[in-house]
Amino acid sequence: TALALAALTASLGFGASLRRLVSTPRLSGWNFDALVISDDGRATGEKLRSLGLVSSYATGDNPDILVRGLLVNALAFEPGSFGPSIIAGRRPRGTNEIALGTKTLRKLHLSIGNTVPVSFIGGPNNEPFPAVQMRIVGTVVNPQFFFSQSAGGDSAAVSEEIIDSASIPDHPPGGAAAYVRFAPGISVGRGVERVRQSITGNLFILRRSASSDLANLQRISSLPNVLGALLAVVAAGTLAHTLISSVRRRRRDLAILRTLGFVRGQVRMTVVWQATTIVLIALAIGLPLGAIAGRWAWGLFVDQLGYVRLSIVPLIAILLTIPAAIILSNIISSIPARAAARTQPALVLRAE
User: Do 164 and 202 fall into the same domain?
Assistant: First the structure.
């Protein structure tokens, strides 16, 4: 019973964390509503703000870089604006700092505090610039863009300062990209349509959307609930089996209680209290262990995806489990309790 309750609690925590990930774009790297690439990111952002379309924006770029030879798609943000989704550490500043995704760090056997050679790809021939040594100051999660040449989950973030300092021909100061957050009341779809109507010239817009990983997770987001229901049935069945077996084994003890003056109601309450005690002990063991196991399993799962590791412990659901388990145990115990109350002391003791 304790094991089943622990598994039930773990599935509740895992399911709550999964639903939070699916419903919170920031956790999968979408710290903005749309990426708008044009001839001049700052001019685009200012125009959208003047039209009341965006509440805030950040200029920057979306370069491909080589991190120790590994091709990675990076986000570059100007200083002072909102930035990328940082999991650990802090966002990069200046021209010699970088944040990398969890998968990138794992592949290259790196960690925060290490230095790594980084080459930026750009220029008229789209060739890598000479490598520079950059210090890793954080762990980042970026959206997975369909046009990215890097493998899924490989992410990086830098300050726009290093892009501006590279003196790339025809590169606008501050970057060609504008990371925008639409104003309250403007949906992502409506906002993108308004941007297309408002900005002329070269324009590329990438709106917030779920990656293939998240799309798959959305389809199975209800699975933990189904698993939790099955585990609840298992726990109930285990308790019922325990009580029935206990009544059968202790027929002699129950018969002695009857000879000592216990009436049928008192015998039934003996079985009910036994069930309640079993459930309380199982709750005391299973709930904390399940919460810990759920956090551990979720952390392991989300680290493989490279997303923000935010584990949810559904306290309300867990607390509701306590009275629900006690009530259910009393209902389950009613059948073996009636059987115990029908014990005939003379027949049982004579057989003994």
Answer: yes
